[in-house]
Amino acid sequence: MPSQLRVYVPDHPLIKHWLAIARDVNTPGVLFKTAMSELGRWLTYEATRYWFPTLDTTLQTPLATCQGTLINPEVPIAIIPILRAGLSLLDGAQTLLPLASIYHLGLARNEETLDNHCYLNKLPEKFAANTQIIILEPMLATGGSIMKAMDEIARRGADISLIRIISVVAAPPALQQLNTHYASLNIYTAIIDEGLNEKGYIVPGLGDAGDRAFGT
Ligand code: URA
Q1: How many helices (H) and strands (E) does the chain have?
Q2: Which CATH class is domain 6-53+69-214?
Q3: pLDDT tens per residue, range 115-155
Q4: Is the bond preceding 164 in cis, omega lying within 30 degrees of 0?
Q5: Per-residue pLDDT tens digits for 31-40
Q6: How far apart are the C-alpha atoms of 93 and 170, rounded to whole Å?
Q7: What region, left, alpha or beta, does residue 82 occupy, with left being phi > 0 and alpha being psi -120 to 50 degrees?
């Protein structure tokens, strides 16, 4: 069991390209949404590249029998978008993993107490021990919402070492909290930025991901 969080920043031209489009304040909403969807796709591709449950099989081509490898349909795959912003990554992730179950988790911050509360929780009561879990949370900033999400998911029996978080921009405060409490996690992010401003936004970041994705 690793004792330190693993954070992957894939060195991929398409990820860099779509990150630059998403960051640009002049990118219109429709293109911003495309950028987030593409980032969901390519980061999920990277997150499933080296370890994902497969099944070796023998199959028949029109000409001969040969060996093949499939994604193992017996192993449950769960995608958990953290609403709202996580929805912007869902199209891309779901295209690659069409058999995954999607469990929506809606979190909102109480602006007085600064606590995160769940306004929508479609998580199952219990995850099977071998469930592969992909959490979609584009902005890992203060760590408030991802820690709340992790607590809800861990409480339902998830194996933390089988969880991958897909984020677009990650910042040190969230990574430090995750490392303290869930060190066997794996994170795939397009970039790690320096820090946060006084309002908790990542700098340089990309602004409010939910507002930009949904035009609010
Ligand atoms: N959530 C966002 O959408 N943007 C940030 O910079 C931080 C949190």
Answers
A1: 6, 13
A2: alpha beta
A3: 889 999 999 999 999 999 999 999 999 999 999 999 999 99
A4: no
A5: 999 999 999 9
A6: 18
A7: beta
Per DSSP, the three-state class of 192 is strand
CA-nearest residue for atom 7, ligand 1, is 201
What global pTM score does this model have? 0.95
pLDDT band at 3 (very low <50, low <70, confident <90, very high): low
Q: Provide the token pair at 150.
A: 């992790």
Alpha carbon of 141 to ligand 1 centroid (Å): 6
Cβ atoms of residues 118 and 105 within 8 Å: yes
Q: How far apart are the CA of 209 and the centre of ligand 1, in A? A: 6
Instruction: Please give all residues whose beta carbon lies within 6 A of any atom in ligand 1, as ranges.
Output: 85, 139, 141, 201-202, 205, 208-210
Tell me the domain boundaries of the chain: 6-53+69-214
pLDDT number for residue 208: 96
